[in-house]
Design brief:
Blueprint lengths: L7 E5 L5 E5 L2 E5 L7 H13 L9 E5 L6 E4 L3 E5 H14 L1 H8 L7 H27 L10 H15 L4 H11 L11 H14 L3
Parallel strand pairs: 4-6
Antiparallel strand pairs: 1-2, 2-3, 5-6
Helix pairs in contact: 1-4, 2-4, 2-6, 4-5, 5-7, 6-7
The protein binds zinc ion.
Amino acid sequence: MSCCSGGWGLWANNDGALFALSGRNVERLDVVHAPGEARLRGAYARMTWLFPNLSCAPRLAFVQGLGGRGGIYADGLIVIGVEDAIDVAARIWRSDYSQVVRTLARPHHRTQEDLMVALVVEVMGRVIAHELGHAVRRTSRYRTPYQNEELAADFTAGWIERRTSKIGQLGCRIFHAIGCNEIPCTHPNSAARVCAYAWGWNSGAA
Ligand SMILES: [Zn+2]
């Protein structure tokens, strides 16, 4: 989720409609198709296999904007904001383009846009891993070295990524980009988030 936004929440009504509270505004969220959604759902299925004691994996939904990158509702639903992921990807694109090319460019990427979509999918994959980290933590069967809820989720995300063979170096860059470097902030800063993710990554070596 985004930092420094004040009151923030996510919930569903009895009909299953999704709502987000961002600042003072309540917004109804429409579920959309995300770029690379089939791939992300496949990756999410592989992530959940790592937690056989998680009796019921949260469902995954994509919405256009969330006022944050991701959120988890009552452990039953993970919601990912597509535009928020695009914002993060655009920042990484501008500041670390050469790393994006080095880690992600493939022959089937014919245009810059293809590469950008690949980066957005990577960002959403990391946000999904982080939100799953929250769900896993709440089962209390899986422990992390962190008391802080967000850093614990980042640690678990790193652990998951290592086990599902993602590109750790890019993961560090993404967690750096989603760190909150303003004071005060509800979420940890870039350095703390990279550290938690990297620690989880190292702990995930089989
Ligand atoms: Zn979180």
